[in-house]
Design goal:
The chain has 218 residues and is α+β, with helices and mostly antiparallel strands. The chain is built from 3 helices and 10 strands.
């Protein structure tokens, strides 16, 4: 009898344990299912946000149009452009009065600048009648048709401290007071004055002092 009671108690305990295990398992399974459903919904929400973001990116223009510049900036740029143009014009005009243009078509040097030997210019070879050009814009300051050394000679004043002299000409094509432009013909090569062959004697002076013309026209 006693043995039967022990078996009955053990059976009840086993049933209770098994039932508890089943209940706990069902609870855990249900909880996991709920969490899985929540994660599934969150994943769907993230996928939707990604899709929306992709749509926004796809809607952006892909061309490389110039950015819109404020009117104030545009006006400032235009002012600077005008200032630059004015400065460029001033520089070009300034250069027109610098004697750096070769007075003959070809620079064939026959005698260099030798101030210690009283040769204050350079001699450039040429043929009688070859055109002589103004090395810079300026005014014809003087003309001498019978200089003892340079024969027919003329002087240009470039109105900025520079002056140029052109000697041994066979002919002078301008008059005193005439304004000539850089590169304009002013005379013709000759062999007047003290000269052994046709050539041009060319001098550059700055504020009354001779300088080597080669430093300017080379």
């Amino acid at each position: 009898m006693r043995h039967k009671r022990v078996v009955a108690v053990l059976s009840i305990v086993i049933i209770i344990v098994a039932a508890s295990y089943i209940v706990v398992s069902l609870y855990l399974i249900n909880d996991l299912s709920s969490k899985n459903e929540v994660l599934k919904q969150e994943k769907q929400g993230l996928n939707l946000k990604v899709k929306q973001l992709e749509d926004v990116i796809a809607s952006q223009p892909t061309d490389t149009q110039s950015p819109i510049i404020p009117a104030k900036t545009v006006k400032s740029i235009q002012v600077h452009e005008k200032e630059l143009e004015a400065a460029t014009d001033d520089f070009i005009n300034y250069q027109q009065y610098i004697p750096n243009f070769c007075p003959l078509a070809e620079l064939i040097l026959t005698k260099p600048y030798l101030p210690k030997r009283s040769h204050y210019g350079i001699d450039l070879a040429g043929k009688i009648g070859d055109p002589v050009y103004a090395a810079a814009s300026g005014v014809v300051e003087s003309i001498n048709l019978d200089d003892e050394i340079y024969g027919k000679i003329l002087v240009l004043d470039h109105l900025n401290g520079y002056k140029t002299r052109y000697g041994h000409n066979s002919r002078i094509n301008v008059e005193v007071g005439t304004f000539v432009r850089k590169g304009e013909q002013i005379a013709e090569v000759g062999s007047t004055g003290i000269s052994s062959a046709p050539h041009l004697h060319f001098e550059i002076l700055y504020r009354g002092k001779n300088i080597d013309p080669e430093t300017k026209i080379k």
